[in-house]
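re: the backbone from monday

yeah here it is again, tokenized this time
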């Protein structure tokens, strides 16, 4: 029973993450067979989807790279990275500044879906 609930949650999360990708069928590719995955693979996929959808704070500096505004992260529990910011208009206002970006991480696209940007004093 638990596995069925997790599978349903994973399928729902997949549908929500792919919403707007152009085709409603894109959310459920015909080659996807959750039943072919081991229980541990199903749980791992479920946890990854949950983690990616969580609102987090990212600290760093907003820079322009390749004509796009990015956050060069200065700390995230010891992890560092550079992420594209999906709200380019707001990011432009903070170019060169140290900021805290609140949003959700789209790891496959290395993009932060911005909810809020605040300058750090």
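seq for it, each position gets an aa:
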């Amino acid at each position: 029973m638990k596995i069925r609930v997790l599978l349903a949650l994973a399928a729902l999360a997949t549908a929500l993450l792919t919403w707007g990708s152009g085709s409603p069928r894109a959310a459920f590719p015909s080659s996807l067979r959750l039943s072919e995955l081991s229980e541990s693979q199903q749980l791992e996929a479920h946890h990854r989807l949950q983690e990616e959808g969580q609102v987090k704070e990212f600290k760093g500096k907003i820079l322009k790279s390749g004509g796009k505004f990015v956050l060069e992260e200065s700390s995230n529990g010891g992890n560092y990275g550079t992420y594209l910011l999906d709200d380019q208009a707001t990011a432009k206002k903070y170019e060169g500044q140290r900021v805290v970006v609140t949003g959700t991480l789209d790891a496959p696209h290395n993009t932060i879906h911005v909810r809020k940007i605040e300058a750090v004093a």
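The chain has two domains: 2-52, 55-119. The beta strands are 55-65, 68-75, 82-85, 98-106, 111-119.
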